[in-house]
Specification:
heterodimer; A: mainly alpha; 9 helices; B: mainly alpha; six-stranded antiparallel sheet; three-stranded antiparallel sheet; elongated
Amino acid sequence: MESGDIGELLVKAQAGDREAEHRLIALVYEELRIMAHQHLRNEQSSFTLSTTVLVNEAYVKLVDGKHAPFRGRTYFFGAASRAMRQVIVDLARMRQTQKRGADYQRVTVEIDELAIDVCAEEVLELDEALHDLAMTDQRLSDIVEYRFFGGLTEEQTSGLIGVTARTVRRDWRKARAWLFNHLHKDSSLRTEIEQPEV
Amino acid sequence: MTSAPIPWSEISRVLDLVFDLPSDQQQSFLQQECAGKPELLAAVEELLAADRASGDFLQTPAAEKVAVLISGTEDSELQSITFGAYQTTRLLGYGGMGVVYLANRIDGEFDQEVAIKCMRGMVSNPEIKQRFLAERQILASLQHPGIAHLLDGGVSEDGHPYFAMEYVRGTALTEYCDLNRLRIKDRIGLFLTVCNCVSYAHSKLVIHRDLKPSNILVTASKTAKGKAQIKLLDFGIAKFLEDEDQLSESQSPDQIRSQLITLEYTAPEQLLRQNVTTATDVYSLGLLLYELLCGQHAHGTEGKSAEEVREIICKRMPVLPSVVAKTAAVSDPAASNRRNKPKSLYRRLTGDLDAIVFKALQKSPDKRYQSVEAMVGDLRRHLELEPIKIRDSSVRYRLERFVYRYRWGVSATALILLLLIGMTVVSLRSNISIRNALEATQIESSKAREIARFLQELFEVADPFAQKGEQISIEELLENGAQRIANDLADQPEIQSELMFVLARIYNSLGIYARSSEMLNQTLEIQTMIFGQAHPEIARTLHWQSLVADNMGEYGLSEEKAEAALEMRLLLLERNDPDVGESMDRLGSLLAYSGQEKRAISLSQEASLILLTAVGEEDKRTQTARHNLAWMLGTQGSYEEATPIFEQVIEISSRLVGPEHPLTLETLNNFAVMLRRQGKIERAEGIYRQVLAARLRVLGDDHPQVGFSQNNLAKLLLGKGEFEEASVLYAKSLSILKTSYGDEHSNVAISLGNLAQVLLQQGSIDQAEIRYREALAIHRKNTPAGSLKVSSTLKGLGRVLTIKGELSEAEPLLREALTIQQRALNPGHWETAETQLRLGQLLVLEGEEREARDLLKQSEEALSGHFDKNHALVKEARKELSLITSGSPPETNP
């Protein structure tokens, strides 16, 4: 698969070319992955990391900001949100498969291993639930992707989907309720894990 | 458990309203809103509770998760995901259906790059997983150099099914062809390779379901022969998307979610969730071929909503590739990419290739090629036929030119069809029979192979490049064929009758009607032997006997056969069967000419209705029937009714086969004839000129159809008084018609008469006399005495002779004319009146004043009743009348 000029991919993807969209997301994914790692390697504290920043940086890096039209930028952020979701999901999966691998070695004393596992599991469950939500109401799922994974603002999201900010706000609330409900259906199990014995 | 699930839209709506309310008002609102719907209430309350309990769920940024997850790793390298024996290195693609990674084997044994396709979702459903695992076996069994091999598959640690396949680097087929500017021939070659792969898979009972350019790659590595290597991806994977779709509780159960599958390449039955068969792949291949041929997607779906796209895919047939090749916006780059020019690209694509694509893209699966092989067969035959040359003889020469320009349709007997679309010998009256001659054969594919084989042998025997410099004529070739059919196939009557039928049609197209009729009779005999008295195939033979009889001018017989065919079809088929419609149309158009107008129109109307419902407005038969109906209505004088039908038929024809296709032009011509009679001269003239120009351009300046157009236009111009142009056109038309029909055909006579009229107007009396005499001689030979055609020639000659003073010869002619007209036409008809005028003028000169006055009076009355008072004839009649009412000076016009 050749990586075409990103600007061109962006234009094509916006016009509805599915293949271009897929390639675009793959490219962004790679970029985000690398950037996320770099960020965390270079800075000791994780508090300065935000997906919004990542996405913005990716945009600047990949697209010539001067030439892309405004709408193109918004579209890019939408694609980047999708990519971000996959980055996170993949990280979680890697974590899970590693756990069961034989050669894994850790030299981490301070970090709470369990918390990381829990995080991984949560992410994967969320991803599944989101997929199910998309079957019921695509727009709600999209909003979660953009707002949560991509870190986009209400305004950016409303611009991307084409609804008012108020609708975005309302839908976000509905989506959260739906997902929360979906994930906590077997609440007894949940409670157990959330309160580990110290 | 509740019986019916509550639609999400309901719950969502109520939630929206509740969210806006303060918590103390929520309960009462809900009681009201959900009164009588306890399930709705429960669902909403559940979500409300979740909303309250959700706390900071999803409120902390996702980035934190990233941080947490990454912090658990030490390695400086980026991690990879494990799928069975493979480890990912990179993300290749991401889409609604899943994710694709590039991966290597963990143990490093094989240095092979692998693509891992991992499905999203589907974790929860055990049924899908089962099916997946079973399917994997089948897919892995596909071993073909042209198909990306499935190496492995399974379920990942976290429950996601995945496929591991050969990783293919390449360019999409369509792009490859454009980059290398491949000609049509080469593109078809590559396409055939693709078909072979698909065919192989079908033999293993695997349907691809998602064939599209991005799934068909041309790889960089070349085989030893230096040909590009083609690889097909993703066989059968689309099936899982459809399965998942079906099992999910989606909101709109009868619509495929456009997220998962690219709509543009989806077949109608997939959209409608009907059975997917090998014909579905045929459809996709059709789309691919379309793009390869003309550079555009068959359905222009850019910027359209999902609803609109559905509509287009399920209901609208695409524009033919050849027509696209000509359309300005696309043509130049498209043609250049095929090393061609727009016009010649159009000619290259028109005919066979158009028809093949058209058949593959039929909406209904059973109307397409039933197997990929069938389509391959037609394409191969097309490629092979290209270089065949037929030489010499005027018939063959005209054949070659005509055939080259307007091939139409390829069936299993493609060889025959080359000859089939030969010269069409058309009489002015039956504009309709051109259509019949251009109809494609409808031979079942099961017999087709045998027939094709037989014909191949035939053709080899009759080698056009035979020794001794002898050229085999087409007739000899056909005779050979007829002999062999009679002798060698005596023990296979079904095939024998089929082949005879085909030969009969060839003879018909070549204008050798006697032979055609013979063959049809033989066919009928055999069929009666096989099938008994009544059978659809017998009905078809009868139908064709009617057509041939028509061409021979045996109108009585033609009608008989058409009636018989209709009767049989009504007996055997449902009344709304398209064949019944076809027969009704045929009989109707015949009856229109034998004076049974009422019945004719009613048949024609019913035929149009049946065909419209049964096969749609874009089918050739429907077009024919509606054309005939419009023609009949127009002849009757119902212009208001006829015009919209004409316009519709023209629009559809232009869209489907192009505005310069003979069928479109013919319809335009007939429309113009009607318009002229209606009095809409300007519009009629415009169309006549348009048609003439098109025919000149496409057919050359010696084709009979050009002759007709010139004739029609000339007649119109004559009526406008533009003699110069009219006589030039008439002369040209005459010379063409003479060449085509010989000197003795009634078309020629008509044209002569028209020419004579112009000459007379211009004052060339002697010339006019010569023409009239010629015309009369022909008419006397061909037409029964007492026919109207003769009468107008008689009138013309009579008039000329009167002017020259040869009264004794003129008088009997005029009297004869008058008798005929008085018998055949309504009283007061202007033609009769004109003859009365001429005869009157003659009698004045002979001194027979009393009779003359009578006639002139009648004539003046009738003419004034019909024409405007400034019309030449009216003025002439009045002048004569006033002269004879002795002495009074000519009236000055009021």
